[in-house]
């Protein structure tokens, strides 16, 4: 019945018309320290899911509702005896790097072009040459009791990326093949069958820093440090691709939450999302000129006048040189420099070749190669075997030729260490550096990410990265059209097509990265991005659609238009997608808008879903939202007062129904995972703040299935509930989290009552984590009680003349059609203070007080009503007794005269 109820609490309606006493909330576990939390769903596929819990500065992960925990182990890290050639029996459990001594406990297996050593600040520094790697190994001694037991390595990378390998032999990969560990925090699990080896390696020619490697010995939860404090949690936005959740948060640098592959479901990381090639701001934001001390590796970035701030740490800088210079240190065969591009005529094509030591024996052959038109088709030009500096002219006037220099396979002598450089006065090379540490207002240490074109020469042709502590960070993220989009600070950025870490705007073609300004209005903090048929941007002032054209072409840098579709603004909480429509909360936080595409006007049309009950978001507005698709489409909104407001939504059936869900506590968060049960029902989780024995607790609780709330032996109606099975007993344990609370129970298919004359569900007070039943049971569900109340809207019926709303009327009878309902499961009346139960005699037979009506369709029964201009019908069901109402017929008598 449209507009059927004024009160609709803890009843769960279905699209096709029935409503049931909502299933109970099953206790899953506490948050870390019972602190505030936000949850991100991890869905690799419907059968491979997890829940990511974020609290104040930490992340934990639940798989199948169980927190990943690490067992206790007594294994240790052996020390390498650098003065000899054996592993010392002296052991450690954690390897931090306060000095060179600790670095020495790791066996040095550096390749000829790699260097690993202690560096100030307490780090293991690792530097390769682009081909050969810095390598350090450590042995882990696994005693007999620890064999076959999961071990965990907690690894912190402070700069760059390091490759991790785990094997049963030194350098082996029997437990983990090479895995790239980005800058950040890592918890890596393995189950060794004997002693094993840790190998860290790094081949890039910029320094990586390892902060620590710890073998976790104490039993405990996997807890990974994060940058998100409690105050940030409401702003966290996540978007998943495969094993990675990309995370945006207003004011916090973008991150990646990584599962280390489906084969390693218990290994997780929180690392930087830090593309090496953008995005960038406009040209020369100084204005000031910049220079670098070298073309590759670790360099000093210098400003001509004060410009840098400490908040530039982590910033990208892209510099374009006047002239071209490429250089390559050669310490292995098949090593070549980047290329220079030679154009022009005559002497304008001359470039210099410089070869220098420190070691050049004359047996290594250095070869100059060229490629015509484009790099790639390299042919030999000439070769050199001695230190020298020469000029070269190719006499190929008006042609574009690319040159590089290096050593081919078979032409290198192991003793040699030399540098080859090409310098051409014309043209330019664009390179990228990342600022690492602030030295002064004119100097930053930096790492070269893309080789530069000139050293020690100022340039005004440079760009600063768009993301940094100084310039701010994006506040929203989503995947759309094969690109990863980030938005915030008046801009939106899209990665290169199918390359989620590529933001090089110098590339050509429609596949290159996208960068657009969002224009006028309050757009500084983008609240959300939503991928519908088009990309929708939720700004404080409006919802904006991004379209290439009216023909639904893919978005590109040249085909990217922005049009507002709703000027009611949006709130700082995520929007949710339902097929091709989106649902978002308005700027007021108390109204909800549907954005649906209209094929006739080629735009999105806003529809206020709270128009039928505009006060549903009050008091306080909505603070969390998640969508459930099975068994019906339900959007769960958490209200600031701790109530869940649930929107039952079906466009085809024209259903827009709001109900509330309340419990003995405050609901603070909601998250949904795909169902893993039959019949299919999504898994809905609430985070509930409860007061237990005067203390604040925060529990993650999962909705029971509707099939578990129908009065069968497994009947889970009761909040923060626990199901217990075992040998027949009166003592039910496992209720420590409800200490001091009164709970109702469903035992062996029945609900205990207060007494033979009082059929109110009996409550039992939890003491010492358990309750004592009156009679023994083998299967019990115990949880907090709750009521479900339903009251009709004002009844505009039973009048023969005039306006029925103001006429006196009385509710005289009621007939109900029920299913799966306890014989004492439904009460009715004209108000909630005067309620009666279902008839106790049906067909001249006394109804068993524990009977479950699988189908109930009986004649009407009287209501003890009174004459009133606002007569209503009220229904109440109470945990743990199931009740499903399929329909009702009201007997209302009116009085047309006052």
CA radius of gyration is 35 Å
Helix coverage percent: under 10%
Globally, the shape reads elongated
Separate helix tally:
1
Mean of all residue-level pLDDT scores = 94
Report the end-to-end length measured between terminal Cα atoms.
28 Å
Query: Could you give a short account of the major beta sheet?
Result: 10 strands, antiparallel
**Strand pairing plus helix content: what structural class?**
mainly beta
* Unreliable sequence segments: none
**Residue fraction in strands:** over 45%
Q: What is the number of strand segments?
A: 79
If you had to describe this structure to a student in words, what would you say it looks like?
The chain has 898 residues and is mostly beta strands. Among the domains are: 69-221, Jelly Rolls (Sandwich); 280-465, no CATH class; 719-785, no CATH class; 788-895, no CATH class. The chain has 1 helix and 79 strands. The strands form 17 sheets. Strands 12, 14, 15, 17, 20, 22, 25, 26, 27 and 28 form a 10-stranded antiparallel β-sheet that branches. Strands 10, 11, 13, 16, 18, 19 and 21 form a 7-stranded antiparallel β-sheet that branches. A 7-stranded antiparallel β-sheet has the order 29-44-32-42-43-31-30, with no helix packed on it. A hairpin with a 5-residue loop joins β30 (290-292) and β31. It is elongated and about 115 Å long.
Layout of secondary structure:
Elements: E1 5-9, E2 11-13, E3 19-21, E4 25-30, E5 38-45, E6 48-55, E7 58-63, E8 66-67, E9 69-70, E10 76-80, E11 87-92, E12 94-96, H1 100-104, E13 107-108, E14 115-119, E15 123-127, E16 134-141, E17 151-159, E18 162-167, E19 176-181, E20 184-190, E21 196-202, E22 208-215, E23 220-221, E24 224-225, E25 236-241, E26 244-249, E27 252-259, E28 268-272, E29 280-283, E30 290-292, E31 298-303, E32 316-320, E33 324-330, E34 335-336, E35 340-342, E36 351-359, E37 366-372, E38 379-384, E39 388-392, E40 401-407, E41 417-424, E42 430-440, E43 443-450, E44 462-465, E45 476-480, E46 483-488, E47 491-494, E48 514-517, E49 528-531, E50 535-538, E51 543-547, E52 561-566, E53 576-578, E54 581-585, E55 592-598, E56 603-608, E57 622-628, E58 634-639, E59 644-650, E60 655-661, E61 666-673, E62 683-692, E63 695-703, E64 719-732, E65 742-747, E66 763-765, E67 771-784, E68 787-792, E69 808-819, E70 821-822, E71 827-831, E72 834-837, E73 841-842, E74 845-846, E75 852-853, E76 856-857, E77 861-862, E78 874-878, E79 884-895
Antiparallel strand pairs: 1-68, 2-3, 3-79, 4-63, 5-6, 6-7, 7-8, 7-24, 9-23, 10-11, 10-16, 12-22, 13-16, 14-15, 15-22, 16-21, 17-20, 17-22, 18-19, 18-21, 20-28, 25-26, 26-27, 27-28, 29-44, 30-31, 31-43, 32-42, 32-44, 33-41, 34-40, 35-40, 36-39, 36-41, 37-38, 37-40, 42-43, 45-46, 46-47, 47-48, ...
């Amino acid at each position: 019945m449209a507009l059927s109820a004024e009160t609709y609490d803890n009843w769960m309606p279905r699209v096709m018309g029935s409503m049931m006493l909502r299933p109970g909330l099953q206790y899953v576990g506490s948050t870390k320290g019972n602190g505030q939390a936000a949850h991100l769903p991890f869905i690799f596929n419907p059968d491979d899911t997890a829940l990511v819990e974020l609290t104040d500065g930490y992340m934990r992960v639940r798989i199948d509702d169980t927190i990943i925990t690490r067992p206790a182990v007594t294994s240790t890290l052996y020390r390498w005896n650098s003065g000899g050639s054996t592993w010392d029996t002296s052991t450690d459990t954690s390897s931090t790097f306060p000095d060179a001594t600790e670095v020495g406990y790791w066996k040095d297996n550096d390749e000829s072009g790699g260097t690993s050593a202690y560096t100030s600040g307490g780090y293991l520094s690792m530097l390769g040459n682009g081909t050969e790697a810095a390598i350090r190994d450590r042995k882990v001694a696994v005693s007999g009791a620890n064999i076959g037991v999961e071990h965990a390595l907690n690894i912190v990378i402070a700069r760059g990326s390091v490759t991790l390998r785990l094997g049963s032999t030194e350098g082996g990969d029997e437990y983990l093949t090479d895995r790239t560990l980005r800058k950040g925090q890592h918890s890596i699990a393995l189950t060794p069958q004997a002693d094993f080896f840790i190998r860290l390696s790094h081949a890039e020619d910029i320094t990586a820093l390892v902060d620590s490697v710890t073998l976790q010995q104490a039993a405990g939860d996997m807890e990974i440090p994060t940058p998100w404090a409690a105050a940030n949690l409401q702003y966290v936005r996540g978007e998943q691709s495969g094993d990675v959740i990309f995370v945006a948060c207003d004011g916090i640098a973008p991150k990646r939450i990584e599962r280390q592959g489906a084969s390693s479901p218990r290994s997780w990381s929180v690392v930087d999302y830090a593309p090496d090639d953008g995005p960038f701001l406009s040209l020369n934001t100084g204005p000031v000129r910049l220079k670098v001390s070298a073309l590759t590796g670790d360099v000093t970035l210098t400003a001509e006048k004060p410009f840098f701030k400490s908040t530039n740490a982590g910033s990208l800088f892209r510099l374009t040189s006047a002239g071209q210079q490429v250089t390559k240190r050669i310490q292995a065969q098949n090593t070549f420099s980047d290329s220079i591009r030679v154009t022009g005529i005559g002497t304008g094509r001359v470039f210099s070749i410089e070869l220098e030591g420190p070691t050049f024996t004359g047996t290594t052959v250095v070869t100059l190669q060229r490629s015509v038109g484009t790099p790639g088709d390299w042919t030999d030009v000439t070769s050199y075997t001695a230190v020298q500096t020469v000029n070269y002219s190719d006499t190929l006037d008006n042609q574009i030729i690319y040159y590089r220099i290096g050593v081919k396979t078979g032409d290198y002598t192991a003793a040699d260490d030399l540098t080859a450089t090409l310098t051409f006065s014309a043209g330019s090379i664009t390179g990228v550096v990342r600022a690492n540490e602030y030295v002064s207002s004119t100097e930053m240490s930096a790492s070269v990410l893309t080789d530069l074109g000139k050293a020690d020469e100022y340039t005004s042709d440079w760009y600063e990265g768009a993301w940094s502590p100084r310039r701010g960070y994006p506040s929203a993220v989503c995947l759309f059209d094969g690109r990863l989009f980030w938005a915030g600070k008046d801009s939106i950025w899209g990665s290169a097509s199918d390359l989620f870490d590529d933001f090089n705007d110098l590339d050509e073609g429609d596949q290159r990265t996208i960068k657009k300004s969002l224009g006028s209005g309050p757009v500084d903090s983008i609240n959300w991005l939503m991928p519908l048929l088009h990309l929708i941007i939720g700004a404080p002032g409006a919802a904006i659609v991004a379209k290439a054209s009216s023909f639904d072409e893919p978005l590109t840098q040249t085909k990217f238009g922005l049009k507002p579709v709703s000027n009611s603004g949006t709130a700082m909480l995520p929007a949710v997608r339902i097929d091709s429509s989106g649902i978002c909360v308005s700027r007021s936080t108390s109204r909800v808008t549907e954005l649906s595409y209209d094929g006739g006007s080629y735009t999105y049309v806003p529809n206020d879903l709270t128009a039928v009950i505009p006060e549903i978001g009050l008091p306080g507005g909505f603070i969390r939202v998640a969508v459930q698709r099975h068994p019906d489409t339900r959007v769960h909104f958490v209200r600031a007062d701790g109530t869940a407001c649930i929107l039952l939504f079906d466009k085809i059936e024209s259903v827009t129904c709001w109900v509330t869900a309340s419990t003995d506590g405050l609901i603070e968060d909601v998250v949904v995972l795909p169902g893993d049960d039959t019949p299919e029902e999504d898994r809905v989780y609430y985070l509930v703040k409860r007061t237990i024995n005067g203390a604040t607790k925060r529990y993650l609780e999962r909705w029971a299935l509707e099939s578990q709330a129908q009065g069968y032996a497994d009947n889970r109606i009761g909040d923060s509930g626990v199901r217990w099975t075992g040998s027949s007993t009166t003592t039910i344990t496992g209720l420590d989290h409800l200490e001091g609370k009164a709970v109702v129970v469903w035992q062996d298919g029945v609900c205990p009552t207060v007494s033979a004359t009082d059929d109110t569900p009996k409550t039992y007070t939890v003491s010492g984590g358990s309750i004592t039943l009156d009679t023994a049971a083998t299967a019990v569900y115990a949880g907090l009680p709750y009521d479900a109340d339903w009251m009709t809207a004002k009844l505009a019926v039973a009048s023969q003349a005039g306006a029925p709303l103001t006429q006196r009327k009385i509710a005289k009878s009621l007939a109900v059609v029920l299913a799966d309902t306890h014989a004492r499961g439904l009460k009715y009346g004209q108000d909630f203070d005067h309620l009666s139960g279902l008839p106790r005699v049906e067909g001249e037979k006394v109804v068993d007080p524990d009977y479950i009506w699988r189908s109930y369709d009986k004649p009407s029964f009287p209501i003890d009503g009174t004459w009133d201009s606002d007569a209503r019908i009220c229904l109440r069901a109470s945990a743990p007794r199931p009740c499903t109402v399929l329909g009702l017929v009201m007997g209302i008598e009116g009085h047309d005269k006052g």
